[in-house]
Design goal:
Blueprint lengths: L2 E9 H13 L4 E5 L5 E2 L12 E9 L5 H12 L3 E9 L4 H6 L5 E3 L3 E4 L11 E4 L12 H13 L5 E5 L5 H9 L3 E5 L3 H13 L7 E4 L9 E7 L2 H6 L1 H7 E13 L3 H8 L3 E3 L3 E3 L2 E8 L1
Parallel strand pairs: 7-8, 9-10, 9-12, 10-11, 12-13
Antiparallel strand pairs: 1-4, 1-5, 2-3, 2-4, 6-7, 13-16, 14-16, 15-16
Length: 293
Amino acid sequence: MPWNEIHIATSADYANELGDKLTAFGAHAVTFQDAGNQPIYEPDPNALSFWQETIVIGLFEMEQELQSILKFLESECAQGQIKSFHLNHLADENWERKCLLHFKPMRFGNRLWICPSWHTPPEKNAVNVMLDPGLAFGTGTHPTTTLCLKWLDEQIQGGETVIDYGCGSGILAIAALKLGAKKVIAIDRDPQALVATRLNADRNAIPPSALTIHSPEGFTPPSVDILIANILAKPLIDLAETFSKLIKPTGKIGLSGILSNQINEIRSAYARTFTFHEPRFMAEWVLLDGIKT
């Protein structure tokens, strides 16, 4: 199908926020380019950084009404947030697949790599998760997923039981198993997420006995050593009591999908049963991790 593509010139400081805004306007994909036209899909795991002069590109369906987006960009340009923008009309082509082919293997922490199926893993003896990027679920490119993958790389030592609550693509559940977890329970309300998790598990030769996949309705999982949830602040607060019951004494919790101004609210919701470490930041996003006391 044909697409509209909006190219926006901005600064490194504003690029990530602008990308989030394009997604909120309904962009099917957002990419970043430097002056040399080289896409960046994942920064160094230790820092979120863009080129000083960055081009942010949003991909929109041809049928989508763009007046509100263009009006927003005109306002941003007038205020000096962006330097310029222009609209391209793209002919009918498989732009999603063309975009995805630019993804490269990405490293998270000391042991873990996420690799698209068309690439040979850079380190064959590393912990390699084979996962093709998609538009609906996590692939490691968002700061919250990066934070969670690095945290799992540190925490999984071998033999743990884990809950991945809000599993999406299954990237965290599969990574936990490949890092050495004994058993993972993946939970999500979205039926498409459950299907995606099973498909990605099969691609990574994960047996159903090691990874069970459930909707939260009518399912009470056993208590586990580690629970990780990459969702949003409000559901994390609502689920505080539930999560407390699902983690063994001295078990570990990792919470992400949190903005930096939501830290205190999340900590307060979990204060009775968890002792938290210092927050881990990436751009405006945060991972909070702690131990059940």
